Amino acid sequence: MTATTGDRSSTSAWRLDRVELRRIGLPLVVPFRTSFGSQTARDILLVRAELVDGAGGRTEGWGECVALGEPSYSPEYVDGAQHVIVHHLLPRLFDLAHVEAATVAPALAAVHGHPMAKGALEMAVLDAQLRAEDRSFADLLGATRETIPSGVSVGIHSSVDELLAAVQGYVDDGYVRIKLKIEPGWDIEPVAAVRQLIGPETPLQVDANTAYRRTDGEHLRRLDDFDLLLIEQPLAEEDIVGHARLAAEIETPICLDESLVSAATTADAIDLGACEIANIKPGRVGGYLEAVRIHDLCRERGIPVWCGGMLETGIGRAANAALAALPGFTLPGDISASTRFYAQDIVVDPITITDGQVTVPRSPGLGFELDRAFLDDCTTHTELHIGR
Ligand code: SMG
Ligand code: MG
Q1: Which of 236, 297, 321, 352 would you call most buried, defined as having the most Cβ atoms within 10 angstroms of its Cβ?
Q2: Global pTM?
Q3: At 10, is the pLDDT very low, low, confident or very high (cuts 50, 70, 90)?
């Protein structure tokens, strides 16, 4: 994929005219517990960007901010993301003479951090630009596949029996890979039980969301008995050296999630031996363009990648499904069906799985159409920001 899209001349350059920030509330069909907390509902920030060109042409697009309600997965949280967008990011974008996906990150680079807030803006611009070009995201990316395998992330349960019932349900739904959330006290026993339930062939992996310490190597080595695809983010996000040491201590491959905040940090983690597999989440790294750069560098270095999830609605999941159709995504991602988390989605074409596969969306834009009536029903707040 190239850094710029389209071949507009400067006279027809897009300008950011207005941005709507919309908050929606969606209950989860079942609580989702990780080592850092339990989610029962999502409070999601959506961004609608309206672009105009010199000839009066107009296009609009939507982005989804993946920040959670609390700063517990990473330092960002939804109220903070909205604040930084309004006070620090939008003024910079409204000042730009030429707005397209590739100009967003450079224009926002003076603001440190806040990748999820930045990524949501880039995403809305990307969707708007692709819709104006009548082009799909998958096409822009050069996505090589029509379908991608679907994995599911399974939370911490209050008993192993409950966990096994949940996992059996997902196996029956057709998911081709199971990921279990783990933490100290909920690791060896549930993993052993699930491995026994699903048999030796079904791919299984675990995600600790930073719950372990450097001294836990001996304990985590016990997971080597269960032929796991990977262990995701066992240690603190800053602890790249600790992950490298752990990689030398255990056989289960180390996959980083929270630690990988950019292409540069990913390259360093790989060089240090801390990252044998990479979880790519566009929101965590500031957007889809940086996500593609991480894909490219991992592919060059022979590091398998897969697409993570942040309990996105149909907006984010559609874009993730297109991204995951790139050739370096050799492992199933956390791109489960919309119904895994939500009874109803805000799009008319939510992600479904058939025989364990998700169809890569090919409609213009990021690959979704909004269900405007339901979107309005679940909206809790809207505000409009107008450029100069
Ligand atoms: O979107 O299917 C999904 C959830 C995938 O487990 C998932 N995400 O650390 O990878 C991760 C978590 C982050 C969100 S937990 C609330
Ligand atoms: Mg993770």
Answers
A1: 321
A2: 0.96
A3: very low
Ligand 1 atom having least distance to the Cα of 155: 6
Whether 58 contacts 51, CB under 8 Å: yes
* Residue among 22, 181, 243, 295 flagged as catalytic: 181
What percent of the chain lies above the pLDDT cut of 90? 96
Tell me the C-alpha distance between 232 and 256, whole Å.
6
pLDDT in tens, 211-242: 999 999 999 999 999 999 999 999 999 999 99
Mean pLDDT of the 358-370 span: 98
State the Cα–Cα distance between residues 159 and 162, nearest whole angstrom: 5
What residues have a C-beta under 5 A from ligand 2, the ion? Answer: 207, 232, 257
pLDDT in tens, 32-60: 999 999 999 999 999 999 999 989 899 99
Helices (H), 330-378: 372-378
Q: Under a CB-based contact definition with an 8 Å cutoff, are residues 47 and 85 in contact?
A: yes
Confidence of residue 261 (pLDDT cuts 50, 70, 90): very high
Handedness of CA 320, 324, 330, 332 (dihedral sign): positive
Phi and psi at residue 47, in whole multiples of 5°? -125, 125
CB 208 within 8 A of CB 62: no
Ligand 1 centroid–CA 380 distance in Å is 24
291 alpha carbon – ligand 2 mean position (Å): 15
| Choice among 281, 293, 295, 340 that is catalytic | 281
Q: Which residue, among 63, 62, 65, has the nearest Cα to 80 in the 3D structure? A: 65
From CA 7, how far away is CA 98, in angstroms rounded? 12
Token look-up 């400067």 returns 10
Best residue among 334, 336, 342 to mutate for probing ligand 1, ranked by most atoms within 8 Å of CB: 334
Residue 361 has pLDDT above 70, yes or no: yes
Rounded CA gap, 195 and 228, in Å? 9
In the residue annotation, 179 being an active-site residue is answered as no
Residue of 310, 339, 340, 358 with the most ligand 1 atoms within 8 Å of its CB, for mutation: 310
